[in-house]
Design a protein that fits this description.
single chain; alpha+beta; Elongation Factor Tu (Ef-tu), domain 3; six-stranded antiparallel β-barrel; six-stranded antiparallel β-sheet; flat
Length: about 550
């Protein structure tokens, strides 16, 4: 059997199969392009912004520096007593407002006043002596000079003899009495006295009860108030009240004031006795001897007549007496501690009736309160006098007080051994306020170190610094013809910076859009569109296919 007729059948099948394959390829291409375009449109539609687009615009900047410190009074005084003595009166307490010249503490100045009077008399005597030397000596002058010498010698003998037995006895008796009084106060109520007072009170109570009972029997009578029973009851009531008061007084414990007074009296009595026991002191003896020598010289001068050297000596003695009077007056003035300026009392270190010396009262001028900050050396270079500041105190954290920089210390504060921290004191004024600001309060301050108005600014977050290269960049937003967005990395130059914005001095113009963050696409599928571009267009935007399709630049599928 011949096989030649079968060949046409084979060719027909081949053509049939090729046609089916061609149809399948065309259908596949149609499906691909449809799917690819749909995927691209979906990708473009899914693009979203995960960052924030802001506009470069004209605005104001205020660069600020913050620091903490404390309120400190710049005008204070620790006032000390000019000399030791017994405190007679303390006129102030902590917190009192005082005026300049007010007497704060008064010492017992009786002895000092006597010293002034004695110095005044000595001056009068020396002046009189000088006048006598400058005139002719008379019998009366001789008699007066001799009497003065006799008096000076008698006084010297008295000083040498010291205290008399009667004076010592009286001083010892006073000290013994003061000691007994002090012991009585310290010991408290006496048992015998308490027992006696208690017995008296009970007797008065019994008498009162009897009188009350007698009166109750006739109380209903119209004339009961005028009866003898009424009078007896009144007397018994008064006696009971008196006995009760005596009992309370007998059983009362000593108060701190009573103890202090008794102690002060005892200390004074001991001091007086010791003064007598120590007499004569070298100073007293020297003074008495000097008076004798002066009287002797005066008598000799009168006897010998006036000489220029004697007149010169008398003048010197007058001057010496005048200086002694001035010293005595100064000592008397020192018995009063006065306020040197208007202020507030911050400490009182003495009490009445005590022997005191040295620092007694501390005074502060509240008008001199300033804020003293401790500023690190890194920041202090930006600060200068006159810069405005805002201060808040820990006591009133929501209340702002205006102020300004008064001074910046030229040298750093002393630091602890081994510490590498260097800081400087910066003083700020405190503006008008109604707060009860006190010395030592904790303060926080914000100082405006630089301010610029009408400059081009962008938010600080929009700046990307390249610290290694010393440059700054922003991502400027580019909008394509189709509305799509991309960014362009642009170098900018910057100026002043504050907490929110940075000044742009080059690289941008007002109205330019910049991106804070990034542009990103939806996470649906694997399609993505980057938001960066270096030419300001979409030409370099990379696309990758997804969902089973590819993008081909030639407009069709690849060939074998």
């Amino acid at each position: 059997m011949s096989t030649a007729p079968k060949q046409p059948i084979v060719r027909r099948w081949r053509w049939l199969i090729a046609g089916v394959i061609a149809i399948a390829l065309v259908a596949g291409a149609v499906v691909y392009f449809s799917s690819s375009r749909s995927g691209q449109k979906a990708s473009a539609a899914a693009q979203t912004e995960t960052g924030t687009i802001v506009t470069a615009q004209i605005g104001n900047l205020a660069s600020k520096s913050t620091a903490s410190g404390n309120v400190k009074a710049q005008h204070t005084a620790a006032l000390s007593l000019g000399q030791a003595g017994t405190v007679a009166k303390v006129n102030v307490k902590v917190g009192d407002q005082v005026k300049a010249g007010d007497v704060l503490v008064q010492l017992d100045d009786a002895e000092l006043a006597r010293a002034v009077a004695s110095a005044e008399q000595s001056l009068i005597i020396q002046e009189a002596n000088l006048a006598e030397l400058q005139g002719a000596s008379t019998a009366a002058e001789l008699a007066s000079a001799q009497a003065a010498l006799d008096s000076a010698r008698a006084n010297l003998d008295k000083v040498k003899a010291g205290a008399s037995a009667s004076d010592l006895a009286a001083a010892r008796a006073s000290m013994s009495s003061a000691q007994e009084a002090y012991n009585t106060v310290i010991a408290g109520p006496d048992a015998a006295t308490v027992t006696q007072a208690e017995a008296t009170l009970k007797n008065a109570e019994a008498t009162l009860q009897q009188a009350q009972s007698a009166y109750d029997k006739i109380a209903s009578r119209p004339d009961a108030g005028m009866s003898s029973q009424a009078l007896t009851l009144q007397q018994a009531t008064n006696n009971y009240a008196s006995a009760q008061a005596a009992y309370q007084e007998a059983t009362k414990a000593p108060t701190a004031e009573n103890v202090q007074k008794a102690k002060a009296t005892l200390v004074q009595a001991k001091a007086s006795l010791q003064t007598l026991l120590d007499s004569p002191t070298p100073a007293e003896l020297a003074s008495a001897e000097a008076q004798v020598k002066s009287a002797e010289a005066n008598l000799a001068s009168v006897q010998e007549g006036t000489a220029s050297t004697k007149i010169a000596s008398a003048k010197a003695q007058v001057e010496q007496a005048r200086l002694s009077l001035q010293t005595a007056q100064d000592n008397l003035a020192k018995a009063k501690l006065v306020a040197p300026f208007d202020g507030v009392v911050t400490a009182v270190n003495v009490a009445q009736d005590e022997t005191a010396s040295g620092e007694a009262v501390t005074l502060m001028d509240p008008k001199s309160l300033e804020v003293v900050l401790s500023v690190d050396e890194v920041d202090v270079g930006n600060l200068s006098a006159g810069q405005p500041a805002t201060v808040t105190l820990e006591a009133w954290p929501t209340t702002e007080i205006s102020g300004k920089v008064l001074s910046v210390a030229p040298a750093p504060k002393s630091t602890s051994s081994g510490s590498s921290i260097v800081s400087y004191e910066v003083h700020l004024s405190l503006g008008d306020n109604n707060l009860s600001v006190r010395d030592g309060m904790t303060a926080n301050a914000t100082i405006v170190v630089a301010a610029k108005n009408g400059v081009l600014v962008v938010p600080n977050q929009a700046i990307t610094p390249d610290r290694a290269a010393g440059k700054n960049y922003v991502n400027r937003v580019i909008v394509g013809p189709d509305g799509s967005q991309s960014t362009q990395k642009v170098e900018v130059t910057v100026g002043t910076k504050d907490d929110d914005n940075t000044e742009i001095t080059g690289g941008l113009q007002a109205g330019d859009k910049v991106l804070i963050g990034t542009l990103a696409s939806s996470s649906t599928g694997s399609s993505s569109t980057t938001g960066t571009a270096t030419s300001g267009s979409n030409a370099n935007r990379n696309r990758t296919g997804g969902g089973g399709g590819f993008f081909f630049g030639g407009g069709g599928p690849p060939r074998d």
